[in-house]
Amino acid sequence: MPELPEVEALAQFLRDDAVGAVVGRVDLAALSVLKTVDPPITALQGRNLTGARRFGKHLAIDCDGLWLITHLSRGGWLRWTDNPSATPPKPGRGPLALRVHLFTPDAQTPAFDLTEAGTKKRLAVWVVADPQDVPGIARLGPDALEVTRPEFGEILAGTTARIKTALVDQSLLAGIGNAYSDEILHAARLSPFATASRLTPAEVDALYEAMRAELADAIERSVGQEAARLKGEKRAGMTVHARTGLPCPVCGDTVREVAYAERSFQYCPTCQTGGKVLADRRMSRLLK
């Protein structure tokens, strides 16, 4: 799933390459992704694209006061094309969900596509006058890169959730998902099962610094790849996430995995749990 660094990279790409263009035709290839009807998506046509920004993991495109907002879900992406087909796409089961044609000041006619692999489209799109009209944005907590250390401490002190759960709860802290929470916890040398409100001040300090460093580093890598032209390999710079069975690059211990529901997380026993292997819910319903 695209998280804060990838969505920030896409917003930066649009600020560099799309701001100043005029929105032309908007092709909706998957009706199910559109979550609003008023204003209609055709209201974007003829408007100047004036900005792009991120709200948590939502990508927001400002079209002269009317916002096109998307949540890319687990497999979505924004892809830029310099020479889009002039023929409107046929609705179907392909990856294309939405195409926005543009007219640039230098008389070019590029487009950007919102795409998602698979037949089921979880990707969502809203057209709103105010980003706060999107329910997921209205519920967001402070942004992970904007929250202060005192605010961060208060957030953790106010929840009895495990720290892994707290980091990915968008109502507590916006922008972090499964992958980067694994990396942040590994960098901070904390167990995913540690209770957020029981962390010591020193542990909160370590977690806060790890969060800022991991996200900033990932943004730098993602922006350098011109994200909308080339979807970078998110896992390339990761130490534990999606590396089950491989050696930890810090200590050499084997990276382990815990699965739950439809997801899993990875951690290093030596770096994070004092050598203890955490119980996997596939093997036991009791987490110790």
UniProtKB/TrEMBL annotation:
Keyword field: DNA damage, DNA repair, DNA-binding, Glycosidase, Hydrolase, Lyase, Metal-binding, Multifunctional enzyme, Zinc, Zinc-finger
Pfam family, one: Fapy_DNA_glyco
Residue ranges of domain FPG-type in the record: 239-273
Protein's UniProt keywords contain Cell division: no
Gene Ontology annotations of biological process type: base-excision repair
Cofactor entry: Zn(2+)
Catalyzed reaction equations: 2'-deoxyribonucleotide-(2'-deoxyribose 5'-phosphate)-2'-deoxyribonucleotide-DNA = a 3'-end 2'-deoxyribonucleotide-(2,3-dehydro-2,3-deoxyribose 5'-phosphate)-DNA + a 5'-end 5'-phospho-2'-deoxyribonucleoside-DNA + H(+); Hydrolysis of DNA containing ring-opened 7-methylguanine residues, releasing 2,6-diamino-4-hydroxy-5-(N-methyl)formamidopyrimidine
Coiled coil: none
Record SUPFAM superfamilies: Glucocorticoid receptor-like (DNA-binding domain) (SSF57716), N-terminal domain of MutM-like DNA repair proteins (SSF81624), S13-like H2TH domain (SSF46946)
InterPro entries: DNA_glyclase_Znf_dom_DNA_BS, FPG_cat, FPG_N, H2TH_FPG, Ribosomal_uS13-like_H2TH, Znf_DNA_glyclase/AP_lyase, Znf_FPG/IleRS
Formamidopyrimidine-DNA glycosylase catalytic domain location: 2-118
PROSITE patterns for the chain: FPG_CAT, ZF_FPG_1, ZF_FPG_2
GO molecular function: 8-oxo-7,8-dihydroguanine DNA N-glycosylase activity; class I DNA-(apurinic or apyrimidinic site) endonuclease activity; damaged DNA binding; zinc ion binding
Record family assignment: Belongs to the FPG family.
Protein name as it appears in the record: Fpg/Nei family DNA glycosylase
